C-alpha cells in the first residue's frame, strides 16, 4: 500500500506538470470484444485529468497481424503510435524499439503477478507494464449439462463424449446448427495458444523447454493433436479452421454450442443484457489430457509499452502508469472482466461480485503454461508460426500428427541453428 500511495503521488505530480504543455498521445488498443470501449473510457479519463488528448489507433484483432504492423512501424522508426498494447510474448521481440520504464515503473512492479512481471522484463530492464492477465478457460452451458445430467468435463475424453451427447440431443430437437465445442483454429497466434494447451495437458511439454531444447516431437504431443483433429467435423464445425476468438464467441453466445475455449474477456459479454445465454454459463479450467495429465491454460495477457520513437515520452509514460494503476485495473475488471495483474485486486469484493470466478483465477494464472518466448527471444514469432502452421495442417487433415511434428522438429532446429537470441 505505501508503494501505491507513493506512486499515486508521483503520478499526480506528473499530471500537474504536463497540463501546462498539452500534447496528443496515440495509443493502440485492441477492439476485441469490449476492449476498445473500456480502453477509450480509461484514456478519456486520463485526458480529462491532464488536459492532454489521446488518439486511439485501430489495429488488427489478429495477434499475428498486429505484431506484423508493429514491427513495420517500429522498424521504420515511426512515431505514429506512442503507447503500444503488446502481447506478453512480444516484449523480447520488440524490446530494441521500446523505452526502459524501470525508473518510473519499478516502485509498483512488485504488486503484480510474478508471471506477468517476468513477461515485462528483458535482460533485467522493465520494457513494459502489465495491464491485464489472461489464461485459456473452458466455458460451458450449465443449463445443458443439467438437462443431459452430465458433470463439467475433467478430461478431453469426457468433453468429447459430453459434447457429442448434447450436440446429438439438441439436433434431434431441431437445432441443426448446434455444435458441441468451439475454439480458435485459424492459422495464427491463437492456434498456438490452443494447441499448446492440448499438448501440455497430455504431458507433451511446451514446444521448446526452459533450456532451449526442442521437445515437441514426442508421443504425448502426437496423441494431443490426434485428439484435436478428431473434433473437427464431428463436435466442432469445419469452419473452426478459420475461427479466431470472436468467431467462436459468436457461435457460443448465440446459443449454438455447448462448450467454448476462450479468454476471460468473454465472460462479461456472455452475461450482457443482449446475450442469449445470460445466466446459463459456467467457467472451469480446461480439461486434462487424461488421468495422468494436467489442466493447462496458456498464459496470455497484455502489456503497455512506450515507443522509443515517441515525441512525447513523458506524457506517454504517465498514460501507461495511469492505465496500469490499481484504480484503473479495478474499473476494467468490474466493467469488462479484464483480469487484474495486481495481486491485491483478486480479493476485492466489487470485482468478485462482477466476476464470481475471479478468486479461482490466481491459481489458473500461477499454473498457466508459458509460451517459449523468453528462451527463443527474437525468434519466438518464427517458432510460433512454424508451430501453428504444422498444427493447422493436422487439423485440416493435410498431414498426420507424427509426420507434422517430425517436420516441425526439423524446421525448429533450422531456426535454432544460429542460437535462439
From TrEMBL:
Query: Keyword annotations for this protein?
Result: Periplasm, Signal, Transport
Matches recorded under Gene3D superfamilies:
Periplasmic binding protein-like II
GO biological process terms, alphabetically, are: maltodextrin transmembrane transport; maltose transport
Q: What is the top-level taxon of the source organism?
A: Bacteria
What PANTHER family does the record point to?
MALTOSE-BINDING PERIPLASMIC PROTEIN, MALTOSE_MALTODEXTRIN-BINDING PERIPLASMIC PROTEIN
The name this protein carries in UniProt is: Trehalose/maltose transport system substrate-binding protein
The GO molecular function terms of this record are:
maltose binding
Signal peptide location in the record?
Answer: 1-22
Output the Pfam families linked to this UniProt entry. Answer: SBP_bac_1
Q: Which organism is it from?
A: Microvirga lupini
**Gene Ontology cellular component terms for the protein in this record:** ATP-binding cassette (ABC) transporter complex, substrate-binding subunit-containing
Task: Return the SUPFAM superfamilies for the record.
Answer: Periplasmic binding protein-like II
| Similarity remark | Belongs to the bacterial solute-binding protein 1 family.
Amino acid at each position: 500500500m505505501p508503494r501505491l500511495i507513493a506512486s499515486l503521488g508521483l503520478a499526480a505530480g506528473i499530471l500537474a506538470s504536463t497540463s501546462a504543455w498539452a500534447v496528443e498521445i496515440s495509443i493502440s488498443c485492441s477492439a476485441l470484444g469490449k476492449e476498445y470501449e473500456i480502453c477509450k473510457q480509461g484514456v478519456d479519463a486520463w485526458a480529462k485529468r491532464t488536459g492532454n488528448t489521446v488518439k486511439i489507433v485501430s489495429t488488427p484483432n489478429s495477434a499475428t497481424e498486429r505484431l506484423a504492423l508493429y514491427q513495420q512501424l517500429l522498424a521504420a522508426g515511426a512515431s505514429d503510435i506512442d503507447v503500444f498494447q503488446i502481447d506478453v510474448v512480444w516484449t523480447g521481440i520488440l524490446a530494441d524499439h521500446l523505452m526502459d520504464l524501470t525508473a518510473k515503473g519499478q516502485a509498483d512492479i512488485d504488486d503484480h503477478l510474478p508471471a506477468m512481471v517476468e513477461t515485462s522484463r528483458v535482460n533485467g530492464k522493465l520494457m513494459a507494464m502489465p495491464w491485464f492477465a489472461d489464461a485459456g478457460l473452458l466455458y460451458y452451458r450449465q443449463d445443458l449439462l443439467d438437462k443431459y445430467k452430465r458433470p463439467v468435463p475433467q478430461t478431453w475424453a469426457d468433453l468429447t463424449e459430453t459434447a457429442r451427447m448434447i450436440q446429438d440431443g439438441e439436433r434431434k430437437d431441431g437445432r441443426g446448427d448446434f455444435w458441441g465445442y468451439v475454439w480458435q483454429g485459424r492459422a495464427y497466434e491463437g492456434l498456438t495458444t490452443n494447441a499448446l494447451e492440448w499438448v501440455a495437458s497430455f504431458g507433451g511439454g511446451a514446444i521448446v523447454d526452459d533450456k532451449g531444447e526442442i521437445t515437441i516431437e514426442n508421443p504425448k504431443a502426437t496423441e494431443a493433436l490426434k485428439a484435436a483433429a478428431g473434433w473437427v467435423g464431428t463436435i466442432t464445425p469445419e469452419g473452426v479452421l478459420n475461427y479466431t476468438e470472436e468467431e467462436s464467441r459468436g457461435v457460443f453466445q448465440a446459443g449454438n454450442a455447448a462448450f467454448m475455449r476462450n479468454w476471460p474477456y468473454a465472460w462479461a459479454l456472455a452475461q450482457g443484457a443482449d446475450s442469449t445465454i445470460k445466466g446459463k454459463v459456467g467457467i472451469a479450467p480446461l480439461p486434462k489430457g487424461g488421468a495422468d495429465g494436467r489442466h493447462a491454460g496458456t498464459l496470455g495477457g497484455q502489456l503497455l509499452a512506450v515507443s522509443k520513437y515517441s515525441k512525447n515520452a513523458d506524457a506517454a509514460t504517465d498514460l501507461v502508469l495511469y492505465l496500469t494503476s490499481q484504480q484503473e485495473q479495478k474499473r476494467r475488471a468490474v466493467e469488462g472482466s479484464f483480469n487484474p495483474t495486481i495481486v491485491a485486486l483478486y480479493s476485492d469484493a466489487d470485482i468478485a461480485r462482477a466476476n464470481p470466478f475471479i478468486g479461482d483465477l490466481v491459481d489458473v494464472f500461477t499454473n498457466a503454461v508459458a509460451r517459449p518466448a523468453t528462451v527463443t527471444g527474437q525468434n519466438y514469432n518464427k517458432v510460433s508460426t512454424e508451430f501453428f502452421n504444422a498444427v493447422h495442417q493436422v487439423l485440416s487433415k493435410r498431414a498426420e500428427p507424427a509426420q507434422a511434428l517430425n517436420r516441425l522438429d526439423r524446421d525448429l532446429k533450422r531456426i535454432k541453428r544460429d542460437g535462439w537470441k
